[in-house]
Amino acid sequence: MKYISILRGINVGGHKKILMADLKNLYAQLGFTNVISYIQSGNVVFDSNITDVNQIITSIEKAITTRYGFDVPVIIRTHAEIKNACDNTPFGEIDLKADGSKYFLTLISDLPTKENIEILMNYVNQPERLQIEGKNIYIFYPNGAGRTKLTNGLIENKLKVKATSRNWKTVVKLIELSKG
Predict the structure, then answer these.
(1) Residue 98: pLDDT above 70?
(2) What is the DSSP letter of 107?
(3) Over the Cα atoms of the chain, what is R_g?
(4) pLDDT tens per residue, range 140-160
(5) Non-local CB neighbours of 46 within 8 Å, separated by 6+ positions
(6) Contact, 168 vs 146, CB < 8 A?
(7) Cβ(83)–Cβ(175) under 8 Å?
(8) Which residues are registered as beta bridge partners of 7?
(9) Which of 1, 30, 87, 176 has the fewest CB atoms within 10 Å, measured from its CB?
């Protein structure tokens, strides 16, 4: 099965540094094959015969903690799940070629409760847009993601889940890299 793992918070601001070549080697040592990394923010495409996603997540998180001495949340989706998320964007009117760097897919570890979703929605400030579909959150930051208070940390805090985000251009590239 083809998987895409998204690591939260590595190589950001000089913290939790992991070289992608080292990360690829770590995945290979865990028995994963056809390992491809994309950019320095912890996007890894790989194949595995293991079908229990939680088992894969646990093995990657433990291996990173053992090797690097810090914890890194890992979220995994299959190629089909990421492609489906991309194909079913609720904000179809956004020009993704022009604004793909302002449109994000946030992947969350678990389904949030209705109550927690309502709490989070209080932090969405116009003209920002946010919509939750299952374990995917679609966010449009027309003024740029660097100016928002709607961060992964806030999302995790309010929804009580792990979360990590990638801009639309990265999501499209991960779909391309995980084909076949």
Answers:
(1) yes
(2) E
(3) 16
(4) 999 988 888 999 999 999 999
(5) 2, 3, 5, 27, 32, 33, 34, 35, 36
(6) no
(7) yes
(8) 74
(9) 87
- pLDDT the model gives residue 9: 82
Nearest to 72 by CA among 158, 159, 12: 12
Last residue in a domain, options 48, 80, 112: 80
Catalogue the E-assigned strands of the chain.
2-7, 33-38, 43-47, 74-78, 103-108, 129-133, 136-140, 163-167
**β-pair partners for 36:** 45
Q: pTM value?
A: 0.93
Number of domain units in the chain: 2
Half-sphere exposure of 30 (CA within 13 A, CB side): 26
Q: Is 166 helix (H, G, I), strand (E, B) or coil?
A: strand
Question: Looking at the DSSP assignment, which residues form a beta bridge with residue 129?
Answer: 140
Residues 103 and 75 placed together within one structural domain of the fold: no
Residue 87 CB neighbour total at 10 angstroms? 8
Boundary (domain end) residue, out of 80, 112, 136:
80
pLDDT digits (tens, 9 = 90+) for 2-41: 999 999 988 766 678 888 899 999 999 999 999 999 988 8
Indicate the average pLDDT of the chain.
93
φ, ψ of residue 138 in degrees (nearest 5)? -100, 125
Q: What angle do CA 134, 137, 138 make, to 5 degrees?
A: 130
